[in-house]
Design goal:
The chain is an alpha+beta fold and 96 residues long. Helix content is 32%, strand content 26%. The longest helix has 17 residues.
Length: 96
Amino acid sequence: MLVLITYDVNTEDAVGRKRLRHVAKQCANYGQRVQNSVFECILDPAEYKLLQAKLLSIIDPEKDSLRFYQLGNRYQDKIEHFGAKASYEPEGVLLV
């Protein structure tokens, strides 16, 4: 299923900037960055729960925000892209 992950990590101090880097790295391990704090990830249910647990262990819930949007397996008709950045094939090869 396609999962859209968005996050907002407080970077007012060095600890926050470190959390931001860790969140981005974990998301990049599972999907494609489509905007600064937005990733599209093709995940099975086990991967989804694993990534969610990893990200929740990184963020500070008092300062940071994390959102998961489950677009499902028939996501192709739910995405429209306009603008500068080129689109990509979500189920294509992911180079890390």
